[in-house]
Amino acid sequence: MAEVVLEVQDLKVEFDTYGGVIKAVRGVSFNAYKGTTLAIVGESGCGKSVSVQAVMGLIPVPPGRVTSGIVKLRGNNILGLSHSEMNKVRGKEIGMIFQDPMTSLNPTMTVGKQITETLSVHEGIGRGREAKKRAIDLLEKVHIPEAANRVRHYPFQFSGGMRQRVMIAMAIACKPSILIADEPTTALDVTIQAQILHLLKDLQRENEMSLILITHDLGVVAQMASEVNVMYAGRIIEFGPVDDIYYRSQHPYTIGLRAAMPSSEEGAKRKLQPIEGSPPDLFHPPIGCGYFDRCPYAMKICESNEPEPFLVGKNHYSRCWLHHQRSQTKLTDFIKQDTKIYKNNEIMS
Amino acid sequence: MILEIKNLKKYFEIKKGEFLHAVDDVNLSIQENEIVGLVGESGCGKSTLGRTVVGLYDKTAGSVSYRNQVLPKSYSSSDFWKYSREIQMIFQDPYSALNPRMTVKEIVAEGPLIHSLWKKNAINDKVAYWLNRVGLPRDHMSRYPHEFSGGQRQRIGIARALALEPKLIICDEPISALDVSVQAQIINLMGELKESFGLTLLFIAHDLSMVRYVSDRMAVMYLGALVELGPSYEVYYSSLHPYTQSLIASNPEPDPEKERHRKFIILKGEIPSPVNLKPGCRFAGRCPKVMDICRGTNPVWKEIKPSHFVSCHLH
Ligand SMILES: Nc1ncnc2c1ncn2[C@@H]1O[C@H](COP(=O)(O)OP(=O)(O)OP(=O)(O)O)[C@@H](O)[C@H]1O
Ligand SMILES: Nc1ncnc2c1ncn2[C@@H]1O[C@H](COP(=O)(O)OP(=O)(O)OP(=O)(O)O)[C@@H](O)[C@H]1O
Ligand code: SF4
Ligand code: SF4
Ligand SMILES: [Mg+2]
Ligand SMILES: [Mg+2]
Question: How many CA atoms lie within 13 A of B15 on its CB side?
C-alpha cells in the first residue's frame, strides 16, 4: 500500500443552532494515500462537506466546533493549528475545491486577479506579467475558451460550470500534494467533466497527488476512485475498494442507494425507487444504528446498539448487525428474493 | 402550446461595442404537461435562456409567448408579480438564490403570501408540507440557508418554486447536488405533480441518464443555439448530431469495470468565440466528422424523422 499522507481519526463536529445542537459528524475516520483517489459518497446532509471542512480548519467557530478527533498530515497533527499556520497548509499542501463556487469566489474581483492572488500568496511570485500568464495557462487547462480575454471578467459574467472550473484552476495552481474536491464537476456537462477528470488524473500521476473526491455521481466514482467511503447520518457505514462497493456492497443503505438509480438498460422506464423515509434527526442522533428507521432488514438489536465495523471482505468493512456471525437474518436471503435490484450484487455467502 | 420561444437572442455587452452571443436564435415550443430536457456544453447558454424566458434578462431580439400571450421584452416589477404566479424558475446556484437573512419558512412562504394563496394561520402546515415533499423535516423551517448542506439548500429552492403550484417551471440543474436516492424522490415528485396539477417543465441538467429518464423530449444546445431536438429516447439512443454523440459517449457509467475499459472521445480543437462568430457550423473546429462545406455554410434546421430535428450537413 502507498504511503499515508492524511490520517483522520474519530472526527466529531457539532453546530449550535436556534433549535439545539446539531451533531453533524459523529466519529469519522479514514486514511488518504499518496497517488490514489478516495471517494466519499452518501446521503445529502450526512456530513461529507463538514468533515472535510473540519480537516481544512474551516469550521466557523461559533456556531460550530470540533469536539474530538485527530487530523495528521504526514504524521503531524494539524487540527487546532493557528490561523496563520493553517494558511500555510491550505493551498500549498492541501488544495480544496468547494461545493459552492459563489461563496468562495470574490464577486468584486476579476477572475484573473483572484488566481494571481493565490499564486502570489503561496508561491511568492509577483502580481506582474508572469503571474498573469500563469493565470491564463491555468484557465486554459480547465478549458475556458478565450482565456486571455476571460481573465478580465468578473465571476458573475461566467456560467455556473465556468465558475466551478475557475475554482478548480485556483485549487491546482500550487500543485498541492492533497486535493480535496467537494462535488467538483456537478455543474459541468459530461464532455468537459471527462476532460477535467482527465486533468486531475494527470496531476495525480505527475505529483503523486492524493485525491479526496466527494460526489453523488456514482459514474464519476466508478471512473476515478480506488477506495470508497459511504457515509450516513454523520458516520462512515461502509468502506472498501471500489469494486467491492459496486459489485459486492454489503450495507443496506449502500444497496438501497444503488437501487435508486435509473437503469441504463434501453427503454427502462420503471418508477425510480428512492429509499423510503428520511434520515434521522441530528439534534437527537440515534443511539443504535443510524439507518434503523428506514432499514428493511432492521432487527431488535439495531434500535439501541450501534454496530461496529465488521470485516466483510479484503479491506472491506460494513457497520451492520447483519454481518454478526450469529445473526439469524442474512443479507443473502433478501438478495435472492429481489433479483432485479441486486442483479449486480454477487454477495459472498 | 404553453411556451413558445421564437428566434430568441440574448447578447451581453462585454466591452463597448463588443457583444457575447449567449443565446443566438433559439426556437423551442413546449406543450402543456410536457417535460423537455435541455443539455449542452458548460457555458453554451442554458441558464441565460432560462433567465431570459422568466424575464430576469431583457430579450435582445425575438419573442417568448406563454399560452399565446407575448411576454414583455423587458419586465417591469408588476410584470414579475403578474407572471411569477404561473412561471417559476429553480436556480442553478441555490445559495446565491436564497436570501441569507430569511428563515426557510419565510423563503418558502414568500411567493404564496404575495399572491394571497395561503391563509396566515395555515402557513406552518403548508411550509411543512412542501419541505416534507422534498425530504426535509418540519423543524428545519426556523433555520437559515447557511445552516444547510448543499443538497438541502437545493431542495429549499425546489420547495419555494413548487409552493406556488405554478404551471411552468424552468429547472436549472435542480438535482445536481442530491444523492441518487433523493434525486429519485424529487423526480418522482415532479412526475406526480405533472399528473396532478398539469405541471410543465423545462429541465436543464447534465446527467444524461436522468434527462433521458424524466423528459419527453430532449434538446441539445451548443454555443448559443440548438443543434438537435427530438423524443428523448431517440436523441439518447440514436442521436444524429456529432456533438450529441460525443456527449452520450462521455456519460460515465456506475460500473468500475466498464469505466476501466472506456475509450474516451476527448473533443479536441478550439471552442469558437461567442463574441466573433464566423459563418459555418459552430461545431466545425472540433467535429470528428467535419467536411469542407461545414466551414463556410451554416447547416439548416431540418426534421429528419417525425419530430426529430437536427442542424448538421451530414443529414
Ligand atoms: N453552519 C451550520 N449550522 C448548522 N448546521 C449545519 C451547518 N453546516 C452544516 N450543518 C448541518 O450539518 C449536516 C451536514 O452537512 P454537510 O454540509 O456536511 O452535508 P453533506 O454531506 O455535504 O451534504 P450535501 O451532499 O447535501 O452537500 C447537515 O444536516 C447540515 O444541515
Ligand atoms: N451577466 C453576464 N454578463 C456577461 N456574460 C455572461 C453573463 N451571464 C452569462 N454570460 C456568458 O454567457 C455564456 C452562457 O452562459 P450560461 O450561464 O447561460 O451558460 P450555461 O449553459 O448555463 O453553462 P453551465 O452549464 O456552465 O451553467 C457564457 O459564455 C457566459 O460567460
Ligand atoms: S444494523 Fe440493523 S438497522 Fe442498521 S443497517 Fe444493519 S440491519 Fe439495518
Ligand atoms: S455540420 Fe459538419 S462540422 Fe457541423 S456537426 Fe455536422 S458534420 Fe460536424
Ligand atoms: Mg456537501
Ligand atoms: Mg448554467
Answer: 7
